[in-house]
Batch of 4 targets.
Target 1
Amino acid sequence: MKELKLALLGFGVAGKAFSQILLDRHDAIWEDKGLDVKVTAITTGRSGCLVDPEGIDLARALELMEARGSFQPGDPGYRETDSLTVVREGDYDALIEMTPTNIKNGQPAIDYLTWALERDKHVITANKGPVAFAYGRLKKLAREKGRCFFYETSVMVGTPLFNMAETCLPYCKVKGVRGLLNASCNYFLEELGRGRSFDHIMEEARRAGFLEADPSQDLDGWDAAVKLTALMNVFMNAEMDPARVERTGIRGVTADQAREALARGKKIRLLCQGHMDCEGRPVAVVRPEEIPFDDPLAASDLVACLRLDTDLMGPISIGHHKMEPGQTGYGLFSDLVRLVRHVAETL
Ligand SMILES: NC(=O)c1ccc[n+]([C@@H]2O[C@H](COP(=O)([O-])OP(=O)(O)OC[C@H]3O[C@@H](n4cnc5c(N)ncnc54)[C@H](OP(=O)(O)O)[C@@H]3O)[C@@H](O)[C@H]2O)c1
């Protein structure tokens, strides 16, 4: 029986959602491709690790994490170890990296991916940090090693974007991108337009649990800038980092401004735009702008949306309408299926 062994780094929202889909679709992959996909390691930051080269009982691991929020001594496969040790010494074929994003420099995730590729392992990441800070380097290493490096979930939560462009737009150049990349900012701006104050929305978002303890990543445009950088690195070989993005967040937008814009038939949105100038330098801007109602980016029910300006197909827009943890899992799973196809073809 052919196997594909996975090491999972991170077992939070993304890790659990991915694992659930893998459990549900494991047999379908086996029937379709003759490949038994096994998880041989799960690491977390402070919540314990599981390691079993024969395959971890994933359903049990999910149950334990749901019930207790951690893995503990006595759990099947429990091991005192850490991510770097697993990456450097563990028994796996592909690393699935789902640790928190470090928006300052993308670490330690970049090191995890680099070590895994150096060991001739395939890598999949949900984390925009490595794509924003080290895309060129990681892509080159993956190519040299003949290994896959996929990152569909890192921008727009698994909406087919990178994989779609790579498989469905062959030899088509992306000349520019324009979109809304931060769902929290969209929500804030929509609520401001309903006349509610910034502080009130902030308090409610915190209570509902969808605002970070440190909201500056979203509200000051950092999250959007890191995602825009990732897009430009992948689609335009921009080789830039997020410090190159001209960035203005949404804290300065008032309810009055949002309502005045509405009265003029426009909505304020945190718009992300990027292209390469005529000298081949990246131009990337994140700032609140007024968008006319008839522009798809103004739709109230869009969580995120992106327009790719291409040379052979003109503009192409793609968006998603709802935010659910399963989508994060599916983006990772779609990368896994791409990897499975690659592995099955080369067996
Ligand atoms: N959630 C989404 O909808 C979504 C969408 C797209 C992309 N992503 C990306 O996916 C990644 C994970 O997001 P998430 O929502 O799953 O975060 P999360 O719910 O906060 O979970 C993070 C997980 O990573 C673990 N962790 C922290 N440091 C680690 C380390 N050094 N090695 C191994 N594990 C470590 C944490 O363990 P402890 O709890 O023990 O610290 C936890 O299990 C992030 O990069 C995020 O940007 C998430």
Target 2
Amino acid sequence: MQVNDLIFKELIKRGYSLEGKTRVWNIADSKLWYLSPEQAQGFLDLEKSESYQEEIIAKEINLIKANINDILKKVGNKPINIIDLGCGDGKKAEIFIRYLKGKVKLRYCPIDISGYMVEKAMNRMKQLNIGEVVELQWNISDFENLENVANLLRGSQYKDNVFLLLGNTLGNFEINELLYEIRSSMSKGDFLIIGNGLDNRQEKDIIASYNTKEVDDWLFMILSQVGFDRRDLEFNVRFRRSRVELYYTLLRDKKITFQDKSIYFSTGDQILVSVSYKYGRELFKNFMKLYFSDMKLFPSPDGAYALALCRA
Ligand SMILES: C[S@@+](CC[C@H](N)C(=O)[O-])C[C@H]1O[C@@H](n2cnc3c(N)ncnc32)[C@H](O)[C@@H]1O
């Protein structure tokens, strides 16, 4: 079988740490979730599941629709670049863009680590035929390169940038790291619109919402690409340190080889593949205020999701 060298390297590079006597291999990096077209499509399928629709998609879309006029009032009507960070298939950006039709001149620039997603988002926007769609070598990019992209775009008649970070993407990152990255690539007057969950649920309910066959099937694709078999692993979810941790426990010893290197896993080892940070409203607000003195929060009626409109 062909081993995915990127995932293999990540396991070698990060190694394991000991928690008590348990070896924990932490490769929880969202970059590894969308490497193949199957994984990217797997995420789009996961989004269609009832719980995902209910907890994230519907809440975020309703918030966008309910507050778009307020948001647009602040953003103004100068020509803008819409930089869709982690665009996915672009369905959320589409809502903004439809409202902007005829009011604002715009260029859409999707940024995503997955070429599959970028293509989906681009095709969607081209079909809408509302503004220009920016195609450059940086579309398929890690958030780490953001500064380059933002500077490249800020020329010509489109001087202002509106960044979108929707779909709870922030929750999959260490919040300070990603906010710092984005803030550094913004110029004065640029806007950032974040859509993120605000968790006021009990831990057991949070765990239950992640402990599903759909999530397991999608995340398992990471480990199947380095040679793990379904029978090698058990899927588990726990809540620790303000975050949900999704991991696999080894049910038997396993050796994985790529070129001249081997990794030996032992029964009971844990491989952490995903984390999702959960913040209450006040904590989330405080984090945002560290980076943006001009910030407005638009919470959903049930208080479980929010849009944050931030101005640099
Ligand atoms: C949770 S999805 C959200 C998609 C979309 N914004 C939405 O709301 O439907 C996160 C997206 O971010 C992308 N992504 C994850 N890690 C990334 C990274 N380090 N750099 C760039 N894009 C990344 C993924 O490929 C995925 O499309």
Target 3
Amino acid sequence: MTDEKRALVIVAHPDDMEIGCGGTVARWVEEGWAVWLVVVTEGGGGGPDDATDVSPEARRRISELRKAEQHEAARILGLRGVEFLDYPDGRVEPTLELRRDLVRVIRRYRPQIVVIPSPERNWVPAYQVGRYHPDHLAVGQAALAAIYPAAGNAWDFPELLAEGLSPHHVQEVWVINAPVLNHAVDISTTLERKLAALQAHRSQFGDRFHLLKRWLRQAALERGVRHGLQYAEEFHRIRLREPFPFRR
Ligand SMILES: [Zn+2]
């Protein structure tokens, strides 16, 4: 294995990465990191809330459009690649099947850092519904379980060994929207690229993009103020130690 710096972002939906960590990802790319994105769902539930045609065909069209938008956003941020696991949007559960699929991508990309959504809600200072879509929580729970212990343990999902995917120890987990935030990234130089990438998701924001832009700029400003920075993104950063010196 080379000493290339590699990060993997795991999210539920197209656009989750840009909103949660787009500025951080842009910085990593600038600093020479190889960054990949894995989107768990097909994005097919992202049509208008008041749609009348919710047929499988309509769903497929939305999914294709959103995937194209996600690829465009990833290109703007300079990602190495995007992969969709094609779980149905709106129906993600933290199943063993999802855990195994995430172990598979972690062992394949072998990142030092994995970014995930929070598996838990934060009620303080006020509950923010959009941050804790049930798919986000399910992906957060499955991803954390995939990172530890399964990705690093040959005994978990032995079928992956047969696929040539040996155990891999992730060094750090960065959790978006965690109830406790302990790390800030200065995105003052990459905020504009984050917003440009987000704008690629035209089907989601369209002519309301200016409102989202204002809200995200304000959020980045408030986070920055807390850390003496102009604009920031915040995470709960977990540094994983070497494997425990005892058996489970
Ligand atoms: Zn989402």
Target 4
Amino acid sequence: MRAAYIEQYGGTENILVGERPDPQPGAGEVLLDVKAAALNHLDVWVRIGRGGDSVPRPHVLGSDAAGVVAELGHGVDHLELGQEVVLNPGFSCRRCAACRRGQQSECEEFGLVGFQRPGTYAEKVTVPATSVYPKPASLSFGEAAALALAHVTAWRMLMHRAKLRPGETVLIHGIGGGVAMAGLQTARLIGARAIVTSSSDGKLEAAAKMGAEHGINYERTEDVAAKVRDLTDGRGVDVALDAVGAATWPIDLEAVRKAGRVVICGVTTGAEATTNLQAVYWNQLSLLGSTMGSDEDFREMLAAVEATGLKPVIDRTYPLDQVREATDRMERGEQMGKLVIEVAK
Ligand SMILES: [Zn+2]
């Protein structure tokens, strides 16, 4: 099969596209013919080896995929050959207390396809059978691939961790990124308001068309938190959704209202930040971490997509040969939505 993979850690020049052995599904696994995959910042961490020297190489990159069930491993009977499916990239042990409670992303053995298992930038991938779901009929393979990781992450962050309610206001940093875009769409879906930030006026205009109430260009705004308070009658937002990390964390703490919630799922600008502890207790803030989602989160997110016709925003689609170009675009932060890899027609 053809695949995009790394043999050594480093820059995008280390992404190779070529032949790799076809994988075989083990017990409890399925083989997918991948039709489309999608990029995530996680791919960058895996490629540069930030998670420790733990990935056996050569390693196929990529966490998101949609495709067709091509082979069933032993003991898999809830799926059919030829079925069109979307992959939930997260997987877990399915035996521990967290898994039995239905909180799979709290499992000690929680992992991601494309990180702890070979990834989806390939014509074929084997995955746990419990990680695949029927593809919403309203979505193309590219849209379904673009949906999975970003939308389940935003869904859990807003619906279950921050418990965002209709009419509340959420601050979303770095609009254009996958989780930020999914967060904006999810917030609008439930009738919440959104204030978004970006360094690009073009992205802020596009976000306004998607229903963002206010956009803040953080490069031209001296004090982003003060601007957020101005836009909320001095009160602050109810929720801050953060996938940016060190650069935006101090802003979150100043921009949320008393008893506000800050929910974070990523640290693209760094993992170490300063926290004003006085603001945390005096303002009675809730600081919430979130990782991917549970099986139920994924099902709920798919059901919402089916019920509302929501489609993830796709920035550009590339052929498998151009994973490197797609990744360069993501690392330059130029995208407005998801970057999709069309693997097969
Ligand atoms: Zn478990």
